[in-house]
Amino acid sequence: MGYLIAIAMVIFTIMIWRVCVILFWRPYAVRKHFRKQGVTGPPCYSFLHGSLHDMKIMMKDARKMIMDKHSHDITQRVLPHYHIWSALYGERFLYWYGTVPRICITDAELVKEILSNKFGFYEKPKVRPSMVTLIGNGLARLRGVDWVKRRRILNPAFSMDKLKVMTSRMAACTISMLDEWKRKLAIEAKNKSLTIEMCEEFRELTSDIIAHTSFGTSFAHGKEAFNAQTKLQHLIVASSSDVFIPGTQYVPTRTNLEIWKLDRKMKKSLKCIIESRLNSQSDSSFYGDDLLGIMMDTKKDGPNKLNMNEIMEECKTFFFTGHETTSNLLVWTVFLLSLHTDWQEKLRQEVMQICGMEIPDPDMLSKLKMVNMVLLEALRLYCPAIELGRVASKDMKLGDLMIPRGTGLMIPITMIHRSKEYWGEDSNDFNPMRFINGASKAAKHPNALLLFSMGPRNCIGQNFTMMEAKIVMALILQRFSWSLSPDYQHAPVNNLSLQAQHGLPIIVKPLQL
C-alpha cells in the first residue's frame, strides 16, 4: 500500500512540476530567448491568459468600428492586435495565446519556408475541442502519415475532370436562385429593382452546390447540418479569446450543453445522408464518383478504408469549408463590383462576348480572364482566411531566428496582402489589373499571395472554389446589374472566416436584353 502511495506522490510531483514549468518558467525563458534575438512584444503577461485579455479588449473595440465603404485597409478591424503590436514592436513580435508563445511572421520568404516544408517541422497547431466539433477531425486537422493517406484518398474527387462534370450542377443551383430573384422582382418590385441580402443568398447557394456536387443531396436535406454548423461557428467565435483549460469540454456548462446538442443534430443529419447513399445503390461495391462515394467506396480496403466515423468527420470538414470560402468570396466580389461599376460592366461585356446567354461550360470559363482577375483581387483584399498558423515541432532555425519547439508561427494573410513592400503604393486599392500577367507575377515576391495557402498542405478545394465562383458570377452578370444599398455598413469581421458583420444588402435590377 505504501509503495502505491509513493508512486502516486511521484506522479503528482511530476505533474505539478510540469505545470509550474509551463505557467511560470517557460514564459520567462521564451521571452528572454527572443529578446536576445531582438524580438519583443506586449510586456504584460497575464497568468494563464497570456495576451488573451488584451486581445479580447482590442477585438471588442474593433467590432464597434464602421469603416468607410471605399476603404479596404481592414487589418485594424479584423486583426486589431496585429495592427497595434506591429506598429509598436515591428512586424516580428512575440505574444501569448494563453500559455502558448506565438511569433508573427510577415516575411514572404520565411512564410514560404514554413508552408513548403515537407518534413513535418512546422505542423498545424492543435485546436480547441469545440473547433474539432465544428469542422471535424478530417483532412484539415490530420497530421503526418495520416494526412498523407487521407489526402491521397480524397484527391480524385477534386481532379479537373471531376470538376468539369460538376459545372452543370453548379449552374443549375445558381439558376434556381436567380429564378427566385426574378420571381420576387415580378411580384414585389414590378420588375424594377429589389434589395437582396447577399450573405444569406450566397450561404444557401454554396451550401446547395456543395451538397449536390459532393454529397448527392441538397441544401434542404442537409439544412440541419448547415444550420448547426452556423450556430456552432458563432459559439466558437464568442469564446475564442477566453482561456481554455483542458478537460473543461466535458463539464456540462450552458455553452457545452449547446455544443453537444448541435453536434448531435449535425451527426444525425449527416448520418441520414450517408445511409441514404448506402440504401440507394444497388451495386454495393460502388457508391458513386463524387466525394461521398469515393469515401464510401468499399474497394478501398486495408489501411486506406474509412470507417463510418471517419467519413462523418470528413463530411463535417467539407460541409463547412466547402461552402464558407466560396460564399464569402462571392459576397466580397459583389461588394467590390457594386463600388466599381466600371469593372462590373467590363466583366459583363466579357461574359456576353464569350458565353452570350448560354450556361458557361468549362471551356468558356477558362476564357473569362477579367472575371478571374477580379476574383483574385477580391481574394487578395478580402481573403476568407485572414491568418494561418503553424507550430514548430522541434527547435528550428528560421531565417535569422532560433525558434524553440512548441512556438506558434502566425502568418497574418491580411497584412501580407496589403504590404506596400510586395504590392506597391496601391496595396489597399482595388486594382484587378495587377493580375494581368497571372497570380505569380502580381506582386514583387511570388509568394506574397496566400489565397489558398501553399506547399503540400494547400487547399484541396481551391479549383472547386474558383470554378464555382466563376459560374455564379457569370450567370449573375448575364441577368442582373446591381448597386450597393445605402443601408450597407462596411464592417468586415473575423468569424473564423472573413464575413460582413452587418450583411450585404444589394439593389439588383434585371437586365433588359
From TrEMBL:
Its cofactor is heme. The chain crosses the membrane at residues 6-25. PROSITE patterns: CYTOCHROME_P450. Keywords: Heme, Iron, Membrane, Metal-binding, Monooxygenase, Oxidoreductase, Transmembrane, Transmembrane helix. GO terms for molecular function: heme binding; iron ion binding; monooxygenase activity; oxidoreductase activity, acting on paired donors, with incorporation or reduction of molecular oxygen. It is a single-pass membrane protein. Heme binds at residue 459. Coiled coil: none annotated. It is found in: Membrane. InterPro entries: Cyt_P450, Cyt_P450_CS, Cyt_P450_E_grp-I, Cyt_P450_sf, Cytochrome_P450_Monooxygen. GO terms for cellular component: membrane. Belongs to the cytochrome P450 family. This is Cytochrome P450. It comes from Pisum sativum. The lineage of its organism: Eukaryota, Viridiplantae, Streptophyta, Embryophyta, Tracheophyta.
